[in-house]
Each structure stands twice: as C-alpha cells, then as structure tokens.
UniProtKB/TrEMBL annotation:
GO molecular function: metal ion binding; oxidoreductase activity
Species this chain originates from: Acrocarpospora phusangensis
CDD domains reported in the protein's UniProt record: iditol_2_DH_like
Keywords: Metal-binding, Oxidoreductase, Zinc
UniProt superkingdom: Bacteria
Gene3D superfamilies: Medium-chain alcohol dehydrogenases, catalytic domain (3.90.180.10), NAD(P)-binding Rossmann-like Domain (3.40.50.720)
Pfam families documented for this protein: ADH_N, ADH_zinc_N
Cofactors demanded by this protein: Zn(2+)
The name this protein goes by in its record: Alcohol dehydrogenase
Domain Enoyl reductase (ER): 7-339
SUPFAM superfamilies named in the record: GroES-like, NAD(P)-binding Rossmann-fold domains
Amino acid sequence: MKVARFHAPGDLRIEEAPEPVAGPGEVKIRVRNCSTCGTDVKIYKHGHHHIDPPRVMGHEIAGEVVESAAPGWAPGDRVQVIAAIPCGRCAECLRGRMTVCPNQESMGYHYDGGFAEYMVVPAKVLAVDGLNRIPDGVGFAEASVAEPLACVLNGQELARVGPGDDVLIMGSGPIGCLHVRLARARGAARVFLADINPDRLAVAAGLVRPDAAIHADVEEHVAKLTDGRGADVVITAAAAGAAQEQAIRMAARQGRISFFGGLPKDNPIIACDSNLVHYRELTIVGANGSSPAHNARALDLIATGAVPVADLITERLPLTDVLAAIDTVARGAAIKVTIEP
Ligand SMILES: [Zn+2]
Ligand SMILES: [Zn+2]
C-alpha cells in the first residue's frame, strides 16, 4: 500500500509499505479521508518531540473497517477515529479531564496515522471509546472534520460560549470557520470574524457569514460594534501573541478569552494587563485538543446539521499529492484540504 511517511523536517515521502495487520483488540481500516491542518504543516517543517521517525502522518481520520479483532466491530462499519488518545487511568482521566491527560498519545505521532491506504486503530483507542460510528448521511470527508470540530467544541465549552453572547473569533482558517458555526449553534447573539489576511477572510466570510468581518483596526471595530462593551467571548484561532494580547483588551466585563491556538514554543510569552483581568473579572482559558466524548458529539453536530462542514472542504487530493496539500494549508490558500488515499 501507499503511505506518506515523515522521516525528518522537510522530508515527507510517499512510499510503498506492507499493509498493517490488526492485532488483538485492534481494528484495521481502509482510510477513506484524512484531512490536513496547520499541525501537519508544523510537523512537516519542524518535526515534533513526540514523533520518532519514520512515522506515517495524518490525524483527522475516517474510513471503513476491513478487518476486526475487537468485539463490536465488523468489516463494512464506517468509522471516525480520535486523534488524541488519553490513557483513561490517570488522576485527570479519572476526573473526566481527558483533554489534559499527561500520558496522552496521538495518532500520527506515537502510532502510524491516516495518510495511508490502510491503518490499524490501536487497542488503546478502542479502550477509551475513541472509534465512532459515522451516522448515516454523513460522508467520510465530513466525518474526518469531526476531530477538529471536537477541539473547537472543547474550546467553546471551556470559554462557556452560550446564548446572547457576542463572540469574536480571531483567525479565519478552518478552525476559525468551525468556531463561527459552533458559536451560532450554541446560541451566540452575534459572531465577528477577524483576520489580518483580507483575502482569506473574504473567502471564509463568504462561507460562514459572520455578523462582521474585520481585517484591520480590530480593536476599534469591536468597540464600535459593541458600543464599547467589548465581546463576551474572544477566541484566538491564530498562533500570534499579539492576537492574544488584543483579545484580553477586547473582552467585555466578565468576558472569557480562549487562547485556542498555541504559540510558537520559542516565543510563548505575552504581555497581559493583569488589572484588566482583575477589575473586569475576565476568565482566560486554554484548549488542548479534545476528548473521545467531544469527537462523538462533534459527529452528532455534523449529522444533525447543527454545524455543517461539507462546504468547508474546499479541496480533495489523492495521497500522492500530500505535499501539495500541506503547501496549500501553509499558504492559507484553502479552507479544509482533505486527502483521499
Ligand atoms: Zn488537525
Ligand atoms: Zn490519563
């Protein structure tokens, strides 16, 4: 079979590999869609301390069971696979905080991922209910977007996005688009979308129709749009410290700020006016991936139409074009790019 294997930063190869075999408690799938995101760009360019190459990349995975050595699964089952695998046994997991499991492993990092014709779903994934049946009417490509949507869901739960909120999303990539749609589904009053790249913003805004699309002077615009209150929730879906600093200044009293996107590890320090946090009773939250339960609920949001994703998938490419796909993502030239191995 063909796989896309990471060997070193800048060295991702399409190779022939033997088909994997499902061991006890495992399931083998024919990968039908594995979508790409900024994380794949980061891994391709810089590697990752949890990846010991060579490793098949790809973590937004949907496919069809072809071989099962696990109870409850049979050939023909259409499935979506979690990306982050919690251990299920540590103090955090036992408290239900699976997104911050310190023993977390990931598909495409510790295990071969979905940029391949076939893939084995590790027993550890099945042990934490990390394999989800794709509901009828949901395609494989849409199902592959359940993983990033699950992360977005975790972020908005932590930031308590709810009815009546004015929500500002900074960054109009695929994650920003999912944030706009989910905020609407959760009853937000108005959703604003900001990006410093006007072209990317225009494309995203055309699809997800925010109440305002802001490409410059974001602080002035948000002040004006909210009569000086600020946004009840500000979500940064961009790897920029400057956006995080602005986010704190643009939050309304008792506002919530989600640092959804992480910062480059060599430059993670920002300036924060602590008195804004104190007097305005702000809450700043992080977001670290998603739990298996978030993935199941994300699939449900897609299936019910609460969060449509089909129109966000703007490019479908074969596995042999994975480098072109990663380049497209790096340039921000598409919303969601999916690989169809
Ligand atoms: Zn991803
Ligand atoms: Zn754990």
